[in-house]
Design goal:
It is a single chain. The chain is α/β, with parallel strands linked by helices and 412 residues long. It has helices at residues 3-11, 20-30, 50-62, 73-78, 85-105, 125-135, 140-146, 160-174, 187-196, 236-244, 257-273, 298-306, 312-335, 338-347, 355-358, 389-392, 398-403, and strands spanning 16-18, 35-41, 66-72, 113-117, 179-183, 206-210, 281-283, 293-295, 377-378, 384-385. A six-stranded mixed β-sheet has the order 1-6-5-2-3-4, with helices on both faces. Strand 2, helix 3 and strand 3 form a beta-alpha-beta unit. The chain is globular. The chain starts with a helix and ends in a 9-residue tail after the last helix.
Length: 412
């Protein structure tokens, strides 16, 4: 692969590139591997949307790039306390297991891949001093604006949400990279980094942005919204049920999460697996419907969907089968890795059970239920108390009770 081919592969399927001349200078003119990082805050459980980023990381690795994956544990804590301090380290380890399995699933060698834990350098004296320096040249308005699409927005925002974009900017320098990669929702943070880093004496980096893939219910795919995403450990039945309920308007391509998943995950992943580099998406149909279809490009998928030749039902069926096939090796590795299973329980412990709900007390019917006598109260030992106890009591012994009853059950 020559320099131009590497450059083309690095840019493939990206929505936007800021400062592309930096990429060209490094790859073409300097002829050295591009150093790039992708960061992920270790908060909710990774889902199938992570395949979108993994495809691009696979492209970077195949283009000879040196890739660092930042497991941003401190960022996860700063983002409105999404990850409690006592869980962030466990979640970082869980993420490393998941990301490694994801890359293996798309047939990518990971020798040039390096994992970096954020807290391993972000607590150093040099990093802290740089954070103070950066905070002295960035306004509160600009910091808040930069994090608006990434940091969780609440009625009473915390100061931590302003620190988040500053740290993400500084990471470019402290990780010693030429470029940062992320979703297009990161654009404002990338713009802040490009503008602010030179103010404290550091060079500007390139920024590469993936498109945002719609979730199952439309809108952004999110770890916190169970209906919008498929967990990597979801069973085949769960995957089928979730996709069956997914948002997919007939003949409508825009905002269709199923179409987007085919475009940005299924076709590229298939291309990575096939020796000829040709992606394929299979849709099974009955013989009377014309038989199975094999798509090799997204334009044909979109055209057939608009023409209703590819119906929502057929599309969902094809996506279901493809996702189940993608997840199978990941889930097999999880089942065969006790360390991964153990860290999963520590990172995402099951919610505590409510003891009050478990221990149900017998319902006290009181004295107002049908058949109850007014002015009397039944005691635990079977006796009765109250103003009218003499009228209903049968006494304390068998002989006394029999003497007060006749054979017809009438009280004497």
């Amino acid at each position: 692969m020559d320099a131009q081919q590497k450059l083309s592969l690095v840019k493939q399927n990206l929505q936007e590139v800021l400062k592309p001349e930096i990429l060209e200078d490094v790859i073409v003119k300097q002829g050295r591997p591009l150093k790039i990082y992708w960061g992920t805050a270790t908060t909710g459980r990774p889902h199938c949307g992570y395949f979108v980023c993994m495809v691009k990381i696979a492209h970077f690795l195949r283009a000879g790039c040196a890739v660092k994956i930042l497991l941003a544990d401190i960022h996860g804590f700063l983002d409105n306390l999404k990850a409690p301090l006592e869980l962030v380290n466990h979640r970082a380890e869980y993420y490393q297991h998941v990301i490694t399995a994801l890359l293996k699933a798309v047939n990518v060698p990971i020798e040039r891949l390096q994992f970096v834990l954020g807290s391993s350098y972000q607590l150093s004296a040099k990093y802290s001093m740089d954070l103070f320096r950066l905070s002295s040249v960035v306004t509160e308005h600009d910091a808040k604006k930069a994090g608006a699409e990434v940091v969780k927005q609440v009625a009473s925002p915390l100061l931590s949400g302003l620190i988040y974009p500053l740290m993400q900017s500084l990471d470019e320098e402290h990780l010693d990279v030429d470029a940062q990669f992320g979703g297009v929702d990161q654009r404002k943070i990338f713009a802040l980094a490009a503008e602010a880093l030179p103010r404290i004496g550091y060079r500007e980096r390139a920024h590469l942005m993936n498109p945002m893939v719609p979730g199952l219910a439309g809108g952004k795919m999110s770890s916190s919204d169970q209906d919008s995403k498929i967990d990597l450990l979801d069973t085949p039945d769960v995957v089928k049920k979730k996709i069956k309920k997914a948002y997919a308007v007939p003949k409508e391509v825009e905002g269709n999460g199923m179409i987007a998943f085919v475009e940005y995950v299924l076709l590229p992943v298939s291309a990575l697996k096939n020796e000829d580099g040709q992606g394929q998406f299979h849709v099974e149909r009955r013989r009377e419907e014309g038989g199975s279809i094999v798509y090799t490009n997204i334009d044909d998928v979109k055209e057939d969907y608009k023409a209703d030749k590819l119906t929502p039902q057929l599309l969902k069926s094809g996506v279901t089968a493809a996702i189940q096939e993608l997840l199978a090796p990941i889930q097999a590795e999880y089942q065969s890795t006790p360390a991964w299973q153990e860290i999963a329980l520590k990172a995402y412990p099951p919610p505590p059970t409510d003891e009050k709900k478990q221990k149900k007390k017998p319902k006290d019917k009181g004295t107002r239920h049908p058949g109850a006598q007014k002015g009397v109260e039944a005691m635990p030992d079977g006796s009765v108390e109250g103003e009218r106890k003499d009228e209903v009591s049968l006494g304390t012994g068998a002989e006394e009770a029999l003497s007060r009853l006749d054979v017809n059950g009438d009280q004497t």
